[in-house]
């Protein structure tokens, strides 16, 4: 029996989110577990994170167990034969028998993609959020650092109760000159995120960029944890799960133990 | 009455091609002409070129006539209210009353997008052709210049009869490091193209890149004009109509006459 870590790319448009739900709803996990059964693996996949319906992933880590003899390097091709066109496996590696894609992750990174031009883009629909009005970049650059560090993020999250303290390591703006027009990307990297947190932060930052609220107003959301103080959730189609990182020693098949999540980040395999 | 030149972007996936066909088939022209009727324009749009089902466009020029008083600058927004999400107008300008989007074009440019990585990409499906094996770039670089200049391109075209001589101004390879993996773009610019010519050239070039035929073999296709000598048509989803160019003086509302197509290219408006 091997424990295997794979990275999967998916187009979230046709999925009711990542997590398996009630029968009849098409989910990333459901499709993947179906394919796992076809190659003789245990049909249970554990993901590094959750993504909502319409949210995409460039390299979502999953772990699962494989009793068979198929060489690890052949796993992506084997699974891809049974996976739909909007979900494919990019790489696979054997990891420690007690490796856990969610619990062992040191951090997760997300990007939210905004298209800034006068008219919407057919080729980027479902892939980026179109913003037809100019954004105040200076105000955004003032607001983003307020989110950094350890805070109670409940005020940005959805349907969350209980512990809302999370740590955000990076929150930055990236301008990109896409062929279909100027884009603005909001990049977030943190140990973990509350449900709906990224979309809540982006929706609130959009209000900052459009001059509807001050950068300073983010402080009160973090202090009071009241969802009503934040902006509306940004729509899912602009959001991408980028990657997660694991401690290097947890990525070795022979290692055991729970690992130390405070060690320097080892990026996941992308071969 | 104004003659108006618009540039339109579309995702070709959901269209049975550009040209209006029999009723019930969803086409770019059909959707656009429907929207023209809604804003009081004559419901007849003439495009710079044709694209097949599944082929995309970044800036396809169309002309039409508008009797109403709507300001030219407001035309994109007005049309976009009635256009579907996979077809939008990017810009509009008034041109000479006898301007013709097809006949006046000095050249058209196309790109074919190849994704070169071990596994297919969900986020680029319908947007690029996935090629899982390495391509021989040196062979491609040897083959491309053979296509330049005036030739009979019937051997690459589809269902074409009659005159097959066309002039190709540019044919080049562009490497691009996309976020989803290395891409290779084949760029073609010519006065005009036969039906299916670009996809026929790309399919043949792919055989060159995969070592299935020699670069030299393209010569015989051009000499004999026999479609059976060329490779299969490359699938539509990797192909993009990029832009067309017009003589500067034909883009002015006050100009008349047929223009001189040998004048230096004036790019279409992209604002």
Automatic annotation (TrEMBL), chains A, B:
Pfam families, per database record: PseudoU_synth_1
InterPro entries to which the protein is assigned, alphabetical: PsdUridine_synth_cat_dom_sf, PsdUridine_synth_TruA, PsdUridine_synth_TruA_a/b_dom, PsdUridine_synth_TruA_C, TruA/RsuA/RluB/E/F_N
Entry keywords, A to Z: Isomerase, tRNA processing
Example of a GO MF term: RNA binding
Catalysed reaction equations from the record: uridine(38/39/40) in tRNA = pseudouridine(38/39/40) in tRNA
GO biological process, one term: tRNA pseudouridine synthesis
Active-site positions on this chain: 52
Residue sites binding substrate per the record: 110
Domain of life the protein comes from: Bacteria
Pseudouridine synthase I TruA alpha/beta domain mapped to chain residues: 8-102, 146-247
EC supergroup of this enzyme: isomerase
EC number: 5.4.99.12
Chain positions covered by the region annotation Disordered: 250-271
Alphabetical list of NCBIfam families matching this protein: hisT_truA
Quaternary state and interactors: Homodimer.
Stated role: Formation of pseudouridine at positions 38, 39 and 40 in the anticodon stem and loop of transfer RNAs.
UniProt record similarity statement: Belongs to the tRNA pseudouridine synthase TruA family.
HAMAP family (UniProt xref): TruA
UniProt-recorded name of the protein: tRNA pseudouridine synthase A
UniProt source species: Thermus thermamylovorans
């Amino acid at each position: 029996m091997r424990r295997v870590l794979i990275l999967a790319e998916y187009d979230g448009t046709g999925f009711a989110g990542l997590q398996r739900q009630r029968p009849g709803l098409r989910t990333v996990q459901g499709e993947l577990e179906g394919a796992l059964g076809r190659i003789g693996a245990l049909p249970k996949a554990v993901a590094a994170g959750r993504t909502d319906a319409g949210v995409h992933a460039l390299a979502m880590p999953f772990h699962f167990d494989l009793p068979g003899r198929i060489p690890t390097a052949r796993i992506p091709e084997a699974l891809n034969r049974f996976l739909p066109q909007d979900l494919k496996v990019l790489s696979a590696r054997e990891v420690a028998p007690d490796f856990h894609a969610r619990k062992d992750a040191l951090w997760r990174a997300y990007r939210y993609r905004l298209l800034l031009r006068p008219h919407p883009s057919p080729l980027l629909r479902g892939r980026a959020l179109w913003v037809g009005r100019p954004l105040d970049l200076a105000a955004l650059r003032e607001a983003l650092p307020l989110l950094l560090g350890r805070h109670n993020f409940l005020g940005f999250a959805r349907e969350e109760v209980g512990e809302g303290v999370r740590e955000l390591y990076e929150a930055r703006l990236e301008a990109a000159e896409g062929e279909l027009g100027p884009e603005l990307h909001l990049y977030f990297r943190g140990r973990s995120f509350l449900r709906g947190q990224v979309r809540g932060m982006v929706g609130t930052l959009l209000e900052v960029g459009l001059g509807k609220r001050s950068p300073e107003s983010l402080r009160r959301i973090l202090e009071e944890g009241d969802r009503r103080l934040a902006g509306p959730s940004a729509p899912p189609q602009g959001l991408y799960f980028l990657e997660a990182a694991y401690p290097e020693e947890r990525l070795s098949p022979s290692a055991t133990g729970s690992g130390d999540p405070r060690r320097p980040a080892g990026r996941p395999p992308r071969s």
